[in-house]
Structure formats: C-alpha cells, structure tokens
Design goal:
Layout lengths: L3 E6 L5 H14 L7 E7 L4 H8 L5 E6 L8 H15 L3 E5 L2 H14 L3 E5 L1 E3 L6 E6 L4 E6 L5 E5 L16 E3 L31 E5 L6 H14 L3 E4 L1 H5 L20 E5 L5 H4 L7 E6 L12 E4 L2 H12 L1
Parallel strand pairs: 1-2, 1-4, 2-3, 3-10, 4-9, 5-9, 11-12, 11-13, 13-14, 14-15
Antiparallel strand pairs: 6-7, 7-8
Helix pairs in contact: 3-4, 5-8
Bound molecules: flavin-adenine dinucleotide (FAD).
Length: 322
C-alpha cells in the first residue's frame, strides 16, 4: 500500500502553497484506498496555522515541532525526516518548491536512497504507474516522467496546482518527536538574515510588477516598480540583469534561476523577454509588457503591450491608480 507524506515547514510559502501541495497529493492518490498525510516540520506552529493545515483534506497531520529547527541546517532536518519515514513506513514524499523543499528533500532522498522528481507541474495517476510532467530546457520542453520505483519523492510547483480550495473537514493531529537531540549533522547553523517586506511574497502574490535592466538603479526601481506594485497591492520582481546590476535584490529574481511565479497579473517593465525570464512567468494569467522596442520578444507572450518608455509610462500609471 502506498503511503504519501507531504512535508511543510514553518518558514514555508504559506497556506496558498500548502493548499497546492495538498491538491497535488489528492491528484496522486486518486485511485488509492488511503489518502495522504501532512507533516509539519519547524518550531511550534500557531493555532491558526494548525487550523489551516487541518483543513487541507489530509488523513492525518503530524506535528514535528522543535524549537531547534530554527537553528538547524538542512542536513539535520533531512536526518529527522529520514528517521520519521523509516519509522512510519512512508514510501512517497512530497514538498513544494520552496527553499525548504529544494534544500531538505534531496538530502532526505539521498539518505533514504530513493529517486526524486523535481518541479512537478502535473500528475496523471489514473494509469498503473503515475506519470509526472516537469519543465526542462527553461520550460521550452515538458518532460513526461514515469516512476518505476514504489519509493520516491517529488518537489511540486505550487503555481501549477492552484485551485479553488474546498475546506474538507478537520484532520486529526498527532505530535511526533523530532529526535533532533541524537542527530549529528556535520554542518552547523551560524546565522540568518531576513529581508523584511511589507509587500506580498513574490512566489504567491496575485499581482507581480517586474522590472529589467533599464531601471538603472535601486532608487528608480523602488520608485517606479515598487510604486506601481504598491498601487496594485502586489509584489515586486526583477530580471537577472536587474539583479546583477544591483538594481534589485537577489531574492526578487524571476526566471529559470530565480523564482517561478504565476500570478493573476504580471507586469513586465523594460524586460526583453529572454527564454530564461519567460521560464519563470509565462504561466501568469494576464501579462502586460511595457517596452520601447515593439519587436521585443516579451510582446509574443503578452496579453497587453504598451510600446512606451517606462520612465514616463509608469509614473502616469501610478498617478492614475493613486
Ligand atoms: C543560465 C542562465 C540563466 C538565467 N536565468 C535568468 C533568470 O532566472 N531570470 C532572468 O530574468 N534572466 C536570466 N538569465 C539572463 C537572461 O538571459 C537575460 O540576460 C535577462 O533576462 C535580460 O534581462 P532584461 O530583460 O532586464 O535586460 P535586456 O535583455 O537588456 O532587456 C531590456 C529591455 O528593456 C527595453 N528597454 C530599454 N529601455 C527602455 C525604457 N526606457 N522603457 C521601456 N523599455 C526599455 C529594451 O528594449 C529591452 O527589450 C539567465 C541567463 C543564463 C545564461
């Protein structure tokens, strides 16, 4: 019998991503007699986040709460997950493509000696073996992957499994010991720096305003891209060229080597539309491009295009929206 465990963490991308992970899990176990379980890994969860987790339709919500997780490396978390998986007999693991999923899950897979499929965007579990789809070559191609092992793990792109969430009851909760006291990870947590932002999280925002190289400097980026994002209660994003030029912070990069987003509205200002940038935003519901060059590739994916200088167009938009 297959036993699927979805891993979520305290620093995770929030209820939206957790609900998407639960949607993936429900799709994967569509033909099983049993459902899926969720395991929360992190420091003590709030009552509100527990209530959210319990509304996602899992058979059971395991809580591996330990304040030590706040000061641990991914190696230690992977060890704790390995112990849990062996003790409880789970054979399939899933996590979203957050830092936690990308960092901890591959390590847990290595410890458990199981294969992993990353960046899953669709699953068809109606046949004898589940068929997963994942983008390759910066999203130019979609690979179909059939798993031949009965033990495996997946990271899941939350944006691909976003659906209307139907609260389905109240999963029972079971607390489990982290076993962290007995774990020697070989790496040591030294410290963390956190960028505070009043704006929504880029990965989950409904509106994203992104800027490219022509923004010139961080002050102009904040005034124009930040200003427009604030009018629309959205998040800010950037191209790698903007990040590399010091115009925008590294964690705002959208694309193949940045974040993958699929908001309801994506505004691309001064962005050429390289394949690497498109890989991170082309699934957005509505794409608006502002560019001086009518031949810019971004217009081929845009629903609305404005051939204009962003330095005059964006202030006009801000004054219309304010
Ligand atoms: C392995 C690899 C991974 C990469 N990963 C990423 C990634 O994750 N994300 C990413 O974004 N890139 C990534 N890149 C870089 C990518 O190839 C492009 O170089 C980058 O996306 C270009 O950024 P840009 O559109 O800001 O700049 P440019 O390509 O220089 O485009 C600027 C655009 O702005 C327009 N413009 C100029 N002035 C104005 C103005 N005043 N008003 C309006 N429009 C104006 C121009 O017409 C042009 O279209 C990667 C590259 C490699 C090789």
């Amino acid at each position: 019998m297959s036993k699927l465990l979805c891993l979520v963490d305290s620093a995770g991308a929030g209820l939206g991503a957790q609900a998407s992970l639960a949607t993936f899990a429900a799709d994967l176990c569509i033909n099983w007699d049993s459902g899926f379980s969720i395991c929360y890994v992190g420091s003590e969860p709030s009552a509100e986040s527990m209530a959210d987790l319990c509304s996602l339709g899992a058979m059971e919500v395991l809580v591996m709460a330990d304040e030590q997780f706040a000061r641990l490396t991914a190696d230690a978390a992977a060890e704790a997950i390995r112990t849990l998986v062996i003790a409880e007999g789970y054979n399939i693991l899933a996590a979203d493509c957050s830092s936690f999923g990308r960092d901890v899950l591959p390590r847990a897979c290595a410890l458990l000696d199981i294969p992993m499929i990353s960046d899953v965007i669709a699953v068809d579990a109606t046949g004898p073996a589940p068929m997963f789809r994942r983008p390759v070559c910066a999203g130019k191609l979609i690979a179909k992957v059939e798993v031949t092992s009965t033990r495996y793990a997946c990271t899941v792109r939350a944006s691909a499994f976003r659906r209307e969430r139907v609260p389905s009851g109240n999963s029972p909760v079971r607390r489990i010991d982290s076993g962290l006291d007995g774990i020697t990870a070989g790496t040591e947590w030294v410290g963390a720096s956190h960028v505070e932002s009043k704006r929504p999280d880029l990965s989950n925002a409904n509106v994203v305003v992104s800027g490219g190289r022509p923004l010139r400097d961080s002050e102009t980026y904040e005034r124009l891209i930040g200003g427009l994002a604030d009018c629309l209660h959205g998040a800010t994003g950037a191209t790698r060229a903007a990040v590399d030029s010091g115009i925008a912070a590294n964690d705002l990069q959208v694309g193949q080597t940045g974040k993958v987003v699929a908001p309801a509205l994506y505004i691309a200002a001064g962005i050429s539309g390289s394949i690497q940038h498109l890989a991170g935003m082309k699934d957005s519901k509505v794409i608006v491009a502002i560019n001086t060059d009518p031949e810019a590739p971004i217009f081929s994916v845009a629903d609305f295009g404005l051939v204009a200088d962003l330095h005059t167009a964006i202030p006009e938009l801000i004054s219309l929206l304010s």
